[in-house]
Amino acid sequence: MMGGANWGGAAFNPETGVLYIRAENRINVFKLEKTEPGLAEVDYLPDNMYQPEAVPHSHTSEGEDLPEWAGIYKWRRFQVLCHRQREWENPLWSRLGWRWLREPNDLPDPLGSSVRGHCDRPWIGYQTHCLRATSTLTDRPESQTVSLCSFVTILLDAG
Amino acid sequence: MSRLSTSASGKRMWSFHTIPQEGEYGNETWEDGSWSYTGSTNVWGPFTADAKRGLVYLPVSTPNSDFYGGHRKGDNLFAESIVCLDANTGKRVWHFQTVHHGLWDHDLPAPPNLVTIQVKGKMIDAVVALGKTGFAYVFDRVTGEPVWPIEERPVPESDVPGEQTSPTQPFPTKPPPFSRQGLRLMT
């Protein structure tokens, strides 16, 4: 599951005791895939995930070899936005590795079927996270988790 | 790490480690010394201050990596927690972790709301922490006691190699979640 509340937060009316929350529902599929060294878009580095140029692949920020869990895997996150939300088409998200897929059919089944039933016109993107993970991962290169959500605004009675 | 500076001089008054350093409360929730190399766990959203009481509330974010925690086993305090600090000293007053050993980036992204609500005829000064979990976590602003019970419930374990998920997660009994809590795959 992804969604819930985000940066917008909530507003409270003290006269009515109602809390107004900008709530989100979003569909995600996370898939752990084995990848080749050097193909990572973003390395996982202790202390600093998002500066792959700052530290060589095989070293920590202190210049020491990574522990034995250093193997390269990547998370591929498929994300579906309902109700024509297209905020990730801006350049910032492009730099972070978001790419647009065409239709729900691009999602791996059976999630694609579920998405088609849930959204009137979904837009789909994916992001690839790469990380260095435990060596035990080499025994089982793939695993997958699934999540779902949509964009709505609701009222919540806090009283 | 969170820091508070005076507005006039910019001099640092105190700092609070959102990843507890050696010897600090909660350090043992980062197994195998993972506190020393794990990043993020920052306060992504703004603080909220109760100026009258001299309290500040920190909505703490998720640790690196957002989606894999095999290299940081344990509950990972104060990740994905609301932390109440004494604004004058930076000392922890209370905290509540909304997700143990976070693996979904389900952190607290928004400033907590200070609310005064009537529950069973009693007025309560409360603070509401909103989660990407779709839950609103409501606490007594001073004591940190949940206004309504928050239950630790068993949750499924991950099958990701190397991962060690928490056997339970906290679920507020009220108010009800404001986003979907599940998905059924249709095959």
Q: What class, by secondary structure content of chain B?
A: mainly beta
Number of domains of chain A: 1
| Fraction of residues in helix of chain A | under 10%
Kindly name the structural category of chain A: mainly beta
Report, as a whole number of angstroms, the end-to-end distance of chain B.
46 Å
Quaternary state, please? Answer: heterodimer
Overall number of structural domains of chain B: 1
Q: In this structure, how is the largest beta sheet of chain B organized?
A: 4 strands, antiparallel
Mean pLDDT over the full residue set of chain B: 89
Count of extended strands of chain B: 11
CATH fold type of chain B: Thrombin, subunit H
Describe the overall structure.
The complex is a heterodimer of chains A (159) and B (187). Chain A is 8% helix and 41% strand. Chain A contains two helices and seven strands. Mean pLDDT of chain A is 43; it is low at 34-159. Chain A is globular, with a radius of gyration of 19 Å. The longest helix of chain A is centred in the last third of the chain and has 8 residues, at 111-118. Chain A has one domain. Chain A has 159 residues and is mainly beta. Chain A has helices at 91-95, 111-118, and strands at 2-13, 18-34, 71-81, 99-100, 123-133, 143-147, 151-157. In chain A, strands 1, 2, 3, 4, 5, 6 and 7 form a seven-stranded antiparallel beta sheet that branches. In chain B, 0% of the residues lie in helices and 32% in strands. With 187 residues, chain B is mostly beta strands. Chain B starts with a strand and ends in a 15-residue tail after the last strand. In chain B, a hairpin with a 5-residue loop joins β5 (81-86) and β6 (92-97). Chain B contains no helices and eleven strands. Chain B has a single domain, classed as Thrombin, subunit H (Beta Barrel). At the A-B interface, β1, β2, β3, α2 and β5 of A face β7 of B.
